[in-house]
Amino acid sequence: MAGALHYNRIALSSIQITDELVTFLKGRLTTADQIEIVLLLLRDQSRSWTASEVSGELGMAPESAAMRLFLLASQGLILFEPSGIPRYRYAGADETADRLIRELASSYATNREEVLRAVNGRTDADPIRSFADAFKLKK
Amino acid sequence: MVAIIVYVLCAATSALCAVLLLRGYMKSRARLLFWSGLCFTGLALNSLLLVIDMGVVPEIDLSLWRTIPALIGISLLVYGLVWETR
Amino acid sequence: MMAAVVSGMLVAGYLVAALFFLRFWTQSRDRLFALFAAAFALLAIQRLALTISGAPMEDQTVFYLLRLLAFGVIVFAIIDKNRR
To answer: Which value does ipTM take for this structure?
Structure first.
């Protein structure tokens, strides 16, 4: 496990995004789509997913889901299972990565905009997604 | 009479959409929502002026004045759709 | 004359918006956008019918029914979004 954990408490809307998490995310999971794919696979580690299942679940085009899954697998964050139709599963091999991704899951659930802003340095809110989300009445 | 009720409902629905979109804009800062919110405000005004024209002041014809808010609204929406989406 | 120009611009605007919403639907697979596309297409049709008919006021049944349908679709889209 890492020695000195450096916590920089950015108390934004009652959640704290650690520096360590931000460093981990930068360059690996910088967009909402990538984060949501990994978190989706984390939610149920007992099963593997195909690109079209992921695209249906998260509301993205199947081609971009397939591409993102492939890129995430090549980074080692998720496992690639070659079969007739490629399937992907959460890797969870690296202890540090696993801990940070679980931390990400709770931060992201509370306030996704703050997480994205911390990682990107600016608000990268997808306008299309934000438009649809605006119509959710219970916030 | 039924027409007035219908247009009141249309105004209310437009206003609801405007509120939801502008609230969403304050949360996400996505500019598309700002322009969309203004568009639905314009549509709400359009419906409202129509109700006034029909029910309150039937002697005066407000037709062009009614339509201008809708035109401005839709122009702002198209502007937002063109420039604020990837 | 001016009224026809303004109406024409409005119809075109509604249709362009509908096309964008259609694109968003194919990109995101979110049913809300397909419904908004339909609603704006209906608004375009209503405006077009009104202009062609030359009626001075929108109180005829066909005009307010089309408007009602368009906004009904939007209300349905909002309800649908919150059901899931």
So the answer is: 0.91
